[in-house]
Amino acid sequence: MSNDPKPASRSAQKVLSEEFFLSRSKILDLAATLDRLDRAEGSVDELQQRQLLIQGIEILLDKNPDKAKRVQLLMSRPYDPDWRKNYGLH
Amino acid sequence: MDYIDPHIHMVSRTTDDYETLARMGCVAMSEPAFWAGFDRGSVESFRDYFRQLTQFEPKRAAQFGIQHYTWLCINAKEAENVSLSREVIAMIPEFLNESNVLGIGEIGLNKNTKNESTIFLEHVDLAVRYNQQILIHTPHLEDKFQGTKMIVDMLVHDTRVDRSRVLVDHVEEHTIQEVLDQGFWAGMTLYPVTKCTPARAADMIERFGPERLMANSAGDWGPSKPTAIPDLIMELKRRGHSRELIRRVVYENPCKFFSQSKNFKAPLGSS
């Protein structure tokens, strides 16, 4: 069998129709979470976790591809190529 | 469809789970050594655990016609205790000739510390000296990207390591490319909250192809689902993928990778 990456086996219209309700549910969950935060006492606007959620939502709305990978990287600690030297490992 | 779960922690599952897995088509599994939910206090605790993995679990699995294989190590969480880790590493060779041992694993990083890295390198050295395959745990959540790159860096730095005999587990969208590009096998762990869903695993199969790619359930102490691989099979079928493609990911690839260990015997008569 070839290892060529498999093209999407479904048309965009089919993907949308099959996944619309699940996606709708996930958006509602996220919206309700943000509502819950708004209703709760105190403010978290300055906290990094809240900012990461907003930045993640912004990635979903932009026009660029690889959204899942970019959200993952947004939520990741950076890699330092000199880590071995910093740890004294050779 | 028959399938193999290449990474499932059956010590944390009931005998009923073995029966359910058999009914769902699981014909073989491999169980890497991992954290017990608490830090163990002595090398004797690990000796008993390795006896459980090499003697007890294979018998429990065999009751339901499932082949049980295992991997041995001290996991990354407990690697912060360097002296205990070194005692365990020195004891592991006692078990390497047990008939269900495939190699050293799941070794890796947890919080990407210096001690974890030191013990990771010593495990790799053990594997190389004893000609063992390696199964790798990559960290979770915000530590995954950094930790996976550190692990790949350590592995490619050691020219003795045969990359085709190394499986890097828990890959996600931001780590899979580098693992595959460097010539390692990659495992996608299907887990309800952290790690990967069946739908996202199917996306990665569509994007990267089936070469050197597997899926597993982890099936551990956390809120995991031991039947997650059948969920992936269903997702791929739902999307219209061929039986040939699905079987390659859930059966043939684990067979091909495990066959590099002298102890692995492919399940007979699988469909």
Which characteristics define this entry?
heterodimer; A: mainly alpha; 2 domains; 4 helices; 61% helix; B: 271 residues; TIM Barrel; eight-stranded parallel beta sheet; globular
CATH superfamily of chain B: Metal-dependent hydrolases
Q: Number of folding domains of chain B?
A: 1
CATH class term of chain B: Alpha Beta
The second-level CATH architecture of chain B is Alpha-Beta Barrel
Short description:
Chain A is mainly α and 90 residues long. Helix content of chain A is 61%, strand content 0%.
Explained architecture:
The complex is a heterodimer of chains A (90) and B (271). Chain A has 90 residues and is an all-alpha fold. Chain A has two domains: 31 residues; 35 residues, no CATH class. Chain A is built from four helices and no strands. The longest helix of chain A is centred in the N-terminal third of the chain and has 28 residues. Chain A is flat, with a radius of gyration of 19 Å. The mean pLDDT of chain A is 92. Chain B is α/β, with parallel strands linked by helices and 271 residues long. The longest helix of chain B has 20 residues. Chain B has one domain: Metal-dependent hydrolases (TIM Barrel). An eight-stranded parallel beta sheet of chain B has the order 1-2-3-4-5-6-7-8. Chain B is built from nine helices and eight strands. At the A-B interface, α3 and α4 of A face α4, α5, α7 and α9 of B.
Layout of helices and strands:
The complex is a heterodimer of chains A (90) and B (271).
Chain A lengths: L11 H28 L8 H14 L5 H8 L8 H5 L3
Helix pairs in contact in A: 2-3
Chain B lengths: L2 E3 L9 H10 L1 E7 L10 H20 L4 E6 L9 H10 L9 E8 L5 H16 L3 E5 L6 H14 L8 E3 L7 H6 L3 E5 L8 H11 L4 E4 L11 H11 L4 H16 L13
Parallel strand pairs in B: 1-2, 2-3, 3-4, 4-5, 5-6, 6-7, 7-8
